[in-house]
Amino acid sequence: MAPLGVTTSVKDRLRDGTLSASGVAARRIAVVALDREEKDMADLPESHRDLLTRDVGALATIGRDGLPQVTAVWFLLDEDDTIRLSLNTARQKVKNLRERPECTLFIFDPNNPYRTLEIRARAEIATDEGYAFADKVGRKYGADLHSMDQAGEGRVVVTLRSVRVIATALSC
């Protein structure tokens, strides 16, 4: 067994006998895009496309202190196959994205939490004049986003330009 703090792979543990093949979950990982400036969501495998219809994803941003900040968010896969978010301008995730646009949207299947979609992206932020996009998001979720914002706050449309998409399915 590896000393505390040293990571070993499943292959290494199988090889040295500290893990048996019968105790290993079958593992399938499909990396859809690597090292691309921008990736089109149309190339997403059909096996994971349904995850883009889920209600909530986890958006990870990087704070000023360099530490991750993760928040549950609503999102839309727009008509042009682009993922967009409607975010309140007063929230920490918007502040983080303005300073460092690198982010990840992580979505998992509630029926199999080991089937996931990880979208690593660069965020583009635009003002949502007149709450046009917020109203679109509100229709999907049956909510009035105007009522969620305080006086003086506004909304931005965050467009995720994916640079790496990882579709994972682990089964026991």
Please outline the helices and strands.
Elements: H1 10-16, E1 27-31, H2 46-49, E2 57-62, E3 68-73, E4 76-77, E5 83-88, H3 92-99, E6 102-109, E7 112-127, H4 132-141, E8 155-170
Antiparallel strand pairs: 1-8, 2-3, 2-6, 4-5, 5-8, 6-7, 7-8
CATH superfamily: Electron Transport, Fmn-binding Protein, Chain A
Helix content: 10-25%
What percent of residues are in strands? 35-45%
Termini separation (Å)? Answer: 23 Å
Using the 3D structure, state the CATH architecture.
Roll
CATH class: Mainly Beta
Tally the helices. 4
Shape: globular
How would you spell out the order of helices and strands?
Answer: HEHEEEEHEEHE
> Which structural class best describes the helix and strand composition?
alpha+beta
Low-confidence stretches: 1-14, 18-36
Total strands: the figure is 8
What is the name of the CATH topology?
Answer: Pnp Oxidase, Chain A
What about the largest sheet?
A: 8 strands, antiparallel
Number of domains: 1
Nearest-angstrom radius of gyration? 19 Å
- Roughly what is the average pLDDT, rounded to an integer? 81
Question: If you had to describe this structure to a student in words, what would you say it looks like?
Answer:
There is one protein chain. With 172 residues, the protein is of the alpha+beta class. The chain has a single domain (25-170), classed as Pnp Oxidase, Chain A (Roll), CATH 2.30.110.10. The protein contains four helices and eight strands, in the order H-E-H-E-E-E-E-H-E-E-H-E.
Q: What are its keywords?
A:
alpha+beta, 8 strands, globular, disordered N terminus
Question: Nutshell version of this structure?
Answer:
The chain is an alpha+beta fold. Helix content is 17%, strand content 38%. The protein contains 4 helices and 8 strands.
